[in-house]
Amino acid sequence: MDLVQQHLWGWFIAIYLFFGGLGGATMALGIVGELRFNKGKWFGIGTALLGLALLSFGLLWLVLDLIDPFRFLLAFWIKGIGSSWIARGMLIIMGAYIFGILYVAAAFFESKTFKKWMGYLAMFCGFGVTTYTGLLLNANVGIPFWHTPALPVLFTVSAFSTGCALLMWVLAGKNDHESEHFFHAVESFDIFLISLELLVLFAYFDFARGGNLAVVKSAHLLLSNPLFTIGFLIFGLIAPLILEAYASMKENSKGIAAFASALVLFGGFLLRYLIIWAGVFQYPHGLAG
Amino acid sequence: MARYGMVMNVKTCLGCKACMAACSQWNQTPFWAEDGGKWRTRITELEDGEFPEVQRRFFPTICMHCENAGCQSVCPTGATYTNKDGIVLIDYDLCLGCGYCIEACPYDARYEYEKEDLEKDEFYFGEDARHHQVHIDKCTFCVDRLEEGQEPSCVATCVGHARIFGDLDDPNSEIAKLVNTGEAKPLGEYLATKPKVYYIK
User: Fold this and answer.
1) pLDDT (tens digit, 9 = 90+) per residue, A117-150?
2) Is there a smaller number of Cβ atoms within 10 Å at the N or the C end of chain B?
3) What ipTM was estimated for this complex?
4) Which chain A residues are closer than 8 Å to B99 by Cβ?
5) Cβ–Cβ of B107/A283 closer than 8 Å?
């Protein structure tokens, strides 16, 4: 086997995957807050628009990563939808925009039933965006570390964790009863998600340990990189988990939770960048010498 | 309708790289690019075995024109397609330039034909320049030469008869005999890509 680290995708794709997942999760969680936690129409409108804005910012980087960004309109020619996750992703993203904006309009005009249905559809598309970012990498058969069912799960859990982190920032400044209630619900959900992320990561690396040479090399690249071990694992996962767990047991601890949220966002981005960076092709012997 | 394929005889490849030169001239691939150029076909120098049984070998590679092509399945716009003769091709007009196919190819057969490559193409080939838009590029088995009844340029120029091209469905062809007898085998069978390029090692 010839093992070659991939260099084609880098920062730009990592930024896209991060903001795509964050945007989708923020929209989905924000709509839950409005529909189920009575957070009011402006919260629903604000978080849905924030989610779409983040998704748009991410998409900008995806377009900039094209050989010629001006050819981006071709992305709407989704002939490869039967098997391509970029084409399927385009459809999911278009769904997120369409149903997200319809939900915002319905919320603004207080059309209750229509808002509920558009909200659920927008949530579904937001969820789809978070999962698709993992499936996008997953489809590359030549990079075994990406070609595992654990990756879409990891990215989905991480995206929702970053979405919770962002919502905690939004909610930290509000002192009304509903906001307090929803803040603690999001905080508890994030503690659950970070714990789950640690478990998925453990399974991912345990699987990699018995994997082929390229998988072992990818895992080794990550575990020997301080950005992963110290930056992501310690500062991006374990520290916010401890801080959020501590904050959840204390009164007036929103500041700590907000700081933990910043660490979660930092960790979420690092995870995507490092997973992309550690992609190793496993070519049959002879191709790369 | 044929099912074109190629057999690479690693035992007779001299490592002269005339195939690379012929291909780059015919297809105007970016031989000018940094870090050794971008090629549709390459010769990799290998040292196989352990002392004192060490062998220096030359390993020719090319797009494998897989029947189950990963590059084709990930292409969002359908720009990558398989023609009636089993050749995996790219419609440059539809190519988004996302690079997804490069990442999905387990044979390192694709590269980006970038803006600066277009400028160099025009600089070197003038009015005969064949690339007019950025796209992902790869081997086409010289489909334009096949239409004129010629062999692919790398095959036509190979001095060691290391590249044997033909119809895999024609049992009387040299390539079909080599493949059907099991003498020539595909690379990376475990990938389930079903390549149409085979190797005699």
Assistant:
1) 999 999 999 999 999 999 999 888 889 999 988 9
2) N
3) 0.86
4) 8-9, 65, 67
5) yes
